Every structure is written in structure tokens, then in C-alpha cells.
Amino acid sequence: MRRLVGVELTRLRWRRAVQVLVAFALFVPILVFAITAWNTRSYSDAEMAEFQTQVDRDTNSIETQQSLKDCLDNPDDFGVPPGEDVQTTCEEWTLPQLDWYAFREPLNLDTERDAGSGVVVIALLAVLFALAGTTFAGHDWNTGSMSNQLLFEPRRGRVWLTKGLVVTLASGAIAAVVLAAYWTGLWVLAGARSLDPSGHSVWEGYQQGIRGTALAALCALCAYAVTMLFRSTVVTLGVLFGLSILAPILLALIAFPDNERWMPQTNIAAVMLDGTTYYGEMVCTSTTDELGNEIQECGDSTEHKLTLAGGSAYLLGLLALAAVPSVLTFRRRDVP
Amino acid sequence: MTDLVIETQGLRKEFRSRRGVRVAVQDLDLAVPAGGVHGFLGPNGSGKTTTIRMLLGLATATSGSMRLFGEPVPQRLPSVIDRVGAVVENPKFSPHFTGRQNLTLLARTIGPSGGVDAAVDQVVETVGLSGRDQDRYKAYSLGMKQRLAIAATLLKSPELLILDEPTNGLDPAGIREIRDTIRQLGESGVTVLLSSHILAEVQQVCTSATIIGNGRMLASGRVDDLIGISTSYRVAVPDPATARSVLTGAGFTLTGTDDELLVDTDRPAAVTEALGAAGIWLSELTPLRADLETVFLELTAGDQLGGAA
After folding, report:
1. CATH number of this structure's domain B232-287, picked from the four choices 3.50.50.60, 3.90.1170.50, 3.30.70.100, 3.40.50.150
2. Rounded to an integer, what distance in angstroms lies between the CA atom of residue A152 and that of residue A129?
3. Are A145 and B93 in contact (CB < 8 Å)?
4. Is A6 in CB contact (< 8 Å) with chain B?
5. What pLDDT score does B257 carry?
6. Which residues of B touch A145 (CB under 8 A)?
7. For position B309, what pLDDT does the model report?
8. B246-277: per-residue pLDDT in tens?
9. Which CATH superfamily is domain B4-227 in?
10. What is each CA distance from B39 to A28, B34, B44, B257, in whole angstroms?
């Protein structure tokens, strides 16, 4: 088994398409990091001075002063609440403020983790390693070299498992390195900017990295399993497209009860973010007024929490749906 | 029993599709003895490749049993696969890898005792690919691909070599080289099963052969014996017309012209006896040995077109 793992690892390493995908997996996060660093950089003194000049210029403009006068003359038209200090409120609302111009947010590790570049990098790795998994298996089928391999190792279950193991481990290892480097980079960047992130934020980032590693490895294994089942990269891409795009649309269209729970992206979010919130159906009640007309009143959508365990169980279920028929079919099918 | 390297009994393979069931191999009893080169002869689509694929575990049999080296397959295939080298249909390797990379991956799967690099070097040299082994497989000519496929089979130092149409697409020089290689392997003690529809190839190289058509076995045995099946004799006598009458009366089947009598029989002594009893003395009794093509065409009449796959 160890010998076969070595062979499959070499086969994976030598595949040019896989090499390109791994290069992307290394390069694109660097690009995302650079963009994040650029977009969250602090303003220089010269920039702040420039903004202040703009504020002063715009404050003294005829249009701004006219707006301020209108507000002071007719505060009700501007929606100034009764009892508020009209002068202060109108100045606040009509006169330009410095943060209208200096709108860039500083680096925040919690934001990057929950809705920022951390999520983007994981999604990117998941897609790239899914492509690596499918091209690795698809190549063996497309070229017919699978039959040649089976002439040297006819134990098909072992062949399936070894290839799957190699795809999973390689994807997981690269994802782990990339995500660890990414969060270390953000941590170092925050420190360099004297933002002094809390130890909790950093640890949460690494934890997300661990979950992202598992997710990327699972996507690679799932794509591999589907390709071994259908013996076609194109079909696999179609299935993944259907699962990620068409399935949510279909679930939404048929108004499946609690359908948000069963959408892939909700469960992926639960894994990436250590739980997520989704919204269920609105609760509506019907009443009849004194004239006999039916009146329907709907409240807010019900809010549900989907845990990491719930999301993981869903994704593992999808994996089982792909892997079990894949391995069973491969053990019995005629190999061209 | 153990003298047979390959043995099948009642082997059957059906392909099911929307258009119905197609029988590719039916009730095939194949017996290949150890040593020598055994031809596996049949028209295109007669079931040769399907049979080989079943033997190698690449296709499942619908019914029947198979044995390699006395071991039931596919159940015990892993225990005997290291003794079997095979090229099934066209060579199939990763096109973006070099010839050497392809061989290295396969060699590492079995872990040859002398080391992977040494084993690859040796087979590359054996098949004459030295100097081209670092080229990508997709840049190889068909002949080079065939050689690489044979090199892959030799990585195992096989006791049984199964070659399915190994000279397909080769130029005359390549065909000759491959045939010489096959002959040498057979003489060195390796059992070779040579699947082919090229009759001359089988006749030149093989010591024994099995002929199949429409998935059924039509004949099997030593090539000399198979050719002997349809041996006829040319009979020369002073009075052919009388001789024809005598032999017909004795129950022989005659062909040929009035001047040249051809008697289909496997009992030449009976011909001399019948003519001698009638006072007709032979001036010539020459066996006309059929070549394998004649036997093949007689046995597979009607199979060439539209036979089962």
C-alpha cells in the first residue's frame, strides 16, 4: 500500500494540470493578501492633509452652505427630530466630514475571517483542489492508462482508495500550508501596523484555516470520487456546477420546507465560519376583520443557527453519496 | 491441470444495452499449455480482446470460469498478476509523461528486485527505445508506442505474455522485429498468447493456436495439426476419368478438373488401396497442405462481416 501511495503521489506530482492548479493555489492567495494589505493600509499624513483640504473646500462651497441654511430654516423638511439641537444636527448632516473622504477601513482580523479575504482564500482553494481531484482521475480514464495501471495492481478497491488518499492528503497539505501562511501573514501585517490583534482573533483565524483545510481536502476527494464514478472530467464539472448553482435555485423554486438548511452554500458557510445563521419561512397568520375580509399578517423570517457539526454532517453526507457508488462501481465495472 | 497456463471453461460475456443483449464470447473453452507461442486467431470482433480482458480482470465474465497458472481469476488474480505481462489493444499511457516516466510509474508499482531505474534501463534497451525514452509519449510513433507497451510487460519478467494485435500499425521492419522478439521470448520459456487476425503472423510465429469466431471456439491445437485438418491430395493417374469414377464410388470427395484430380481426405493410404484394387496405378499422390488462411476462412466462413465484438 505504501508503495502504491508513492506511485500515485508521483503520478499526481507529474501531472502538468495539477502543477498549474497548485501554482494557482500558491499564487492567488498571495495576490489576495496583497490586495487585502493594500485596501486596508493606513492613510499617510499627506493624504490626510489632502482630505482636510477637500473638506474645507467643500464646506465653504455655495451648495453646501445653501444646504446648511435650508436645513436650519426648515429642519422638519430635513427630518431633524424634535428636541434635537438644530444647529448641531444640521451641521452634522450637511457639512462634509473627514471620514466621507477617508473611508478605508483598517485591517481587522475578525472581519477578514468572517466576511473577508479568509473566506475568499478557502473558497478558492476548495475550487482549485476540486479541479485537481477531477483532472487527476479524469486523465487516467481519458488516456486509457487506467487499464494499464490495473494490469500491475488489479486490486481495484486498493487502487481507488490509494488515489483518493493521495488526492486528499496532497490537497489538505497544500491548503494547510497556504492557510497557515495566510493567517500568519495577516497577523504579522496587523502587528506591523501596530493594530495589536487579540490572541483570540489570531487563534480564530488559524482555526478557520484548519476548517478550510478540511473543506478543500473534502472537495478534492468529492470531485475525484465523482470523476471515478462517471469517468469524465466534463461530467464532474457539470455535477459540481449543478450542485453549486442549480440545486439552490431548484430548492428555492420548489419552496422546500426549511430549504435554506439544505443549500450547499449554507452548509459550507457553517463549516468555514464555525456555524452560521440562516432564515426559515415567514410565519403568517390570517385574521378576519369585522367586514369579513381575510387579512394576512406575516412576521419576520424565523432565524436558525446551523452549527459546524450540522454543516459537516451535510457535507460528509454528500461525500458519501459520491464515494460509495464510485468505489462500488469501480470494483465491478469493465475498464476500457 | 497445472500444465495449462491459461484455462477457461464455458466462458461467456454478454454486453447489455438499450438495443438488447449482445453475446461477445460464448461457451469458450480455451487451453493454453505452458511454453511456446500460442496463437489466438479470429476475425475482427470475434471476441479475442474481450476474452483477454476478462482473463486480466479488466472485464467481468457473465458466466464460466477462468484460471491463470491454475489459480481461479479474477478471485486470485492479484497472486498471479506479477507473472503476467500484457498489452491489450492499443498501448495506453499518459501522453504528457515521457516514455521513461510511464515505465517508472509502472515499475514502482511492482518494485522490481534490482531497482526501478535498472529495470527500466533494461527493458528500454531490450525494445530498442534507448535515446528516445526521455521523449514525451505523445511524440512517439505508433511503432514506438507498441515497443513501449512491450517494454512495460517485460518489467515484470513475465512467465506469461499476452499480446493483443502487437504488430498493429507497425512498418514491415517493426513487424519483423516484434515477431523476432516474440519468437525469442517463446524459445526462452515464456508462454506467449498472441492474439491476431493476421494469419501469416500466427503461422510464422506460433506453435499452437486457437481459432475463434463469433465468440465461439472453432478449432484448437498445434498449428501443423490445424493445417492438416483440411489437407487434400493431388492424384495423377494415366486415366483420370476412370480414377474419378472409382474414387467417387469408394466414397471420396473429389474436386479439381478432368485432368487434375484433387481428393479431400485424411486417409491417403485408402486412395492408393482403392485405385490399386481397380488396377489403376498412381504416378503421383501429393499432399496439398493448406495454409492457415485456408483453414481460417473455412472455419470462420461468414464471420468476417458483422460478427459479435
Report:
1. 3.30.70.100
2. 28
3. yes
4. yes
5. 77
6. 92-94, 102
7. 33
8. 999 988 888 877 777 888 887 888 999 999 99
9. P-loop containing nucleotide triphosphate hydrolases (3.40.50.300)
10. 58, 13, 15, 35
DSSP-assigned letter for residue B255: E
Contact A154 B74 (CB under 8 A): yes
Would you say B25 and B11 are in contact if contact means Cβ atoms under 8 Å apart? yes
Contact A36, A186 (CB under 8 A): yes
Sequence ranges of the domains in chain B: 4-227, 232-287
Chain A contacts of B101, Cβ < 8 Å? 14
pLDDT in tens, B187-223: 889 999 999 888 778 888 898 999 898 888 888 888 8
Alpha helices for chain A (secondary structure H): 2-14, 16-39, 45-59, 62-73, 75-78, 86-94, 109-115, 117-143, 145-152, 156-192, 199-230, 233-241, 247-253, 264-272, 308-332
Inter-chain CB proximity A334 and B60 less than 8 Å: yes
Looking at residue A11, its amino acid is R
Sign of CA dihedral B288, B290, B294, B299: positive
Residue A65: left (phi > 0), alpha (psi -120 to 50), or beta? alpha
- Measure CA of the first residue to CA of the last residue in chain A; give whole Å: 24
Cell 487585502 locates to A36
Query: From the CA of A333, how many Å to the nearest CA of chain B?
Result: 7
Cβ distance of A145 and B94 shorter than 8 Å: yes
Residue from A170, A244, A180 nearest A212 by CA? A180
Query: CB A152 to CB B106 under 8 A?
Result: yes
Q: Does A143 touch chain B (CB under 8 A)?
A: yes
Mutation target to probe the B interface, by most B beta carbons within 10 A, among A12, A145, A335 is A145
Q: What is the DSSP letter of A244?
A: I
- Cα distance from B25 to chain A (closest Cα, Å)? 15
Q: Is the pLDDT of residue B2 over 70?
A: no
